[in-house]
Amino acid sequence: MEGSYCIGIDIGGTYIKMGLFDAEGGRHAFRRAPSNAAGPPEALLEALVRACRDLMETARLQGGRVVAVGLGVAGKLDTAAGRVVFSPNLPNMAGFALAPRLHEALKMPVFMENDANVFGLGEAWVGQGRNIPNWIGVTLGTGVGGCLIADGALWLGDRLGFSGEIGHMIVDPHGPPCACGQTGCLEAHASGSALIRGMREALSAGETLPERITDALRTGSLTPEDVYGAADSGDPQARRLFQRMGWALGLALGNLFTFLGIESAIIGGGVSQAWDQFHPAMMETLRTVPKMLDPDGIRILRSGLGPLAPLYGAARLAWAGLDRF
Q: Residue 247, SS3?
């Protein structure tokens, strides 16, 4: 539709990121606003409505119009009803019918999907996955998310409100506890929260850590970026944590590759910026553990869209939804 745009929205615990996209994946505007995750659902809805109307005006000034909105939200969703069942980033949104309420305010179709799934849609549309029919997506952030692209389409399983949850595959039954209540999940080894917990445990065990890490732990301000900086400077404990991350990712991906009969993955999310620290251990595990795979055929790619991948994917969700609307 010439002159038509869709709005893609990535709702995080800290910021709402929004963009105006044409049908070919061209981005024509970008906005960012606080998500006020601790506030009531109505406040987030009002912020979304204001930002969407701003982008609608931008489209009008460019001689076009907005025809649909796509939302990416972390957590378990009832996508048919447009309702957030549970979101770790937005705990106050539990049970809130976000998509219908936004549709009511904007008078246009609104579609909603899990944030890791829209990461996959974005990479498949205009990112690293656009010429790969079958691949696994992994997002490394505070937690670990995942998706599966099969024959070029997002796999949704039996539409239970979740799919592709690679972060909650158990890679070590005797490993560290996970936020989900299990023990030894991939997320407990390969997430930002796992890095911070690992450094905290090292301090409690009497390990010698860099002074800046010790200070940050004592003030509760340690970030995954701090742990990466320590590893990059040669700290052995930080490096061991990233090696463990790489081992766990390699094991999880190797198992899935063997089960699915595919050999490609795309990794994104903020913690993937530490690629040089975990990639060698991940590839070593993939070369040695899954015996049915040809190591030379395995492709593990970094996100081509970086932190904006879910934004592109949310817009793609909207365009695809219009085709079925």
A: helix
Evaluate if residue 192 carries a pLDDT over 90: yes
Instruction: Give strand pairing partners of 17.
Output: 10, 32
Band of pLDDT at residue 57, cut at 50, 70 and 90? very high
* Alpha helix stretches (DSSP H) within 143-235: 187-190, 192-204, 211-219, 224-232
For residue range 94-110, what is the model confidence (pLDDT) as tens digits? 999 999 999 999 999 99
Helix (H, G, I), strand (E, B) or coil at 138: strand
All residues at 6 or more sequence positions from 76 whose CB lies less than 8 Å from its CB, including other chains: 85, 86, 87, 114, 161, 162
The token duo for 276 is: 């040089």
Burial of residue 105 (CB within 10 Å: 0-12, 13-18, 19+) is middle
Residue bearing tokens 């305010």: 105
Percent of the chain having pLDDT more than 70? 99
The CATH architecture annotation of domain 133-303 reads: 2-Layer Sandwich (3.30)
Q: If one looks up domain 4-122+307-324 in CATH, what number appears?
A: 3.30.420.40
Q: Domain segments of the chain: what residues?
A: 4-122+307-324, 133-303
Contact 112, 75 (CB under 8 A): no
Q: What is the pTM of this model?
A: 0.94
Spatial strand order of the sheet with 153-154 comes to 153-154, 144-150, 135-140, 264-268, 299-302
